[in-house]
Amino acid sequence: MTNIRNIFRLFKKEDPNIIDSWDKMPVGLLKDIHRITSDENLSEDDKSLQAAAVLGRLPYDTLLNLPLDEAQELVARTAFLYEKPEKKNIRKTYTLNGRTYIPLMSMEDMTTAQFIDFNSLINDLDERLPEILSIFLVPKGHKYNDGYDKNTVVKDISEKLMVTEALGMASFFINGYKKYAMRTLLYSEAALEVTMWKAPKELRPQAREVMKALRRLREEIRSSYGFRL
């Protein structure tokens, strides 16, 4: 019991290891919290207790062995989870675990490799946000996926980039990608329309179908890539 009470006393202080705001939560913990809060097999009490254990960096069994009033105090520290996190503006550089990273500031500078990797992960945003961010956050002095360990980048992001910074960065990248994709599709539609009227009549129905497909794709892009938070 002495050890448990010592743990609780740490919670009552301003301990930097206690996560009680989005600004203090490393983005790597976001998927753990999401799994807990979206688990339909858990009661609301179980979700609150499991989230408190994750954010307090405590074994779940240790938290369950606390006196009820002390456990409730810990759960109260997780109230911020019910608030929408602020999304901070993207910065020109980030220092994570002593390493300097440069974000991609313009989608026109995106490489083909970044485009392919982004599209392969974007539908798994809730579970793989650190991996997605690692596509656009590159160690200073390097080109994407060239001369550095990608796993180290993902680890640095997971451990040292806070949720508010990560969501701001993700919004910047995703919105930039959507605008870039929309401009490209609009240009393609315009070029196709000009070509369509110059084409033989028998080819025009196929061209119209391609045009419809491009417009559907624009609508999909416009409505996609949202956050659940």
Quick take:
The chain has 229 residues and is mainly α.
Q: Can you lay out the helices and strands and say which pair or pack?
A:
Elements: H1 2-12, H2 30-37, H3 44-55, H4 60-64, H5 68-76, E1 94-96, E2 99-103, H6 112-121, H7 129-136, E3 137-139, H8 150-160, H9 163-198, H10 204-223
Antiparallel strand pairs: 1-2, 2-3
Mean pLDDT across all amino acids:
81
Structural class: mainly alpha
Q: Beta fraction of the residues?
A: under 5%
Low-confidence stretches: 1-13
Radius of gyration: 23 Å
Tally of DSSP β-strands: 3
Biggest sheet features: 3 strands, antiparallel
- What is the ordering of alpha helices and beta strands? HHHHHEEHHEHHH
- Order of strands in the sheet with the most strands? 1-2-3
Question: What key phrases describe this protein's structure?
Answer:
229 residues; mainly alpha; 10 helices; 3-stranded antiparallel sheet
Structure characterization notes:
- The chain is mostly helical and about 230 residues long.
- Helix content is about 55%, strand content about 5%.
- The chain is built from 10 helices and 3 strands; from the N terminus they run H-H-H-H-H-E-E-H-H-E-H-H-H.
- The chain has a 3-stranded antiparallel β-sheet with strand order 1-2-3.
- Helix 6 (about 110-120) runs antiparallel to helix 7 (about 130-135), helix 7 (about 130-135) packs across helix 9 and helix 9 (about 165-200) packs antiparallel against helix 10 (about 205-225).
- About 20% of the residues are buried.
- Mean pLDDT is about 80; it is low at about 1-15.
